[in-house]
Amino acid sequence: MILPPEQCETMADLRGQIDRIDRALLDLLAERAGYIDRAIVLKPRENLPARTTDRVAQVIANVRKGAEDRNLDPDLIERIWTDLIETAIAHEAKMLGEPPR
Questions:
Q1: DSSP-derived secondary structure for 53-95
Q2: How far apart are CA 49 and CA 89, in angstroms?
Q3: Domain span at 71
Q4: What is the pTM of this model?
Q5: Residue 58 belongs to a domain
Q6: What is the full per-residue pLDDT of the chain (101 aa) written as tens digits?
Q7: Which CATH number belongs to the domain containing residue 64 in this structure?
Q8: How far apart are the first and last CA of the chain?
Q9: Is residue 92 situated within a structural domain?
């Protein structure tokens, strides 16, 4: 059951909601990873390297704006996404046989 924050009457209620959100975030990250795996198939077809600098900049700009729109710290969100992106690029590069950077 989804409870808005103001309806959580105990820490157990609140922790249950945080755990529910964490599970949903993990599901979304797993879904995202599936698309990264598909990129490993598509990038060679389009003659693209693992790291596409303009796309990285675009994703970072998008999440910073999204963070601002949601009253989240854009610097924190950028750090999280940078780690997510760099991990994905390293995985792609390895699978594509590109030399390590």
A1: HHHHHHHHHHHHHHHHHTT--HHHHHHHHHHHHHHHHHHHHHH
A2: 9
A3: 5-96
A4: 0.89
A5: yes
A6: 999 999 999 999 999 999 999 999 999 999 999 999 999 999 999 999 999 999 999 999 999 999 999 999 999 999 999 999 999 999 999 999 998 77
A7: 1.20.59.10
A8: 46
A9: yes
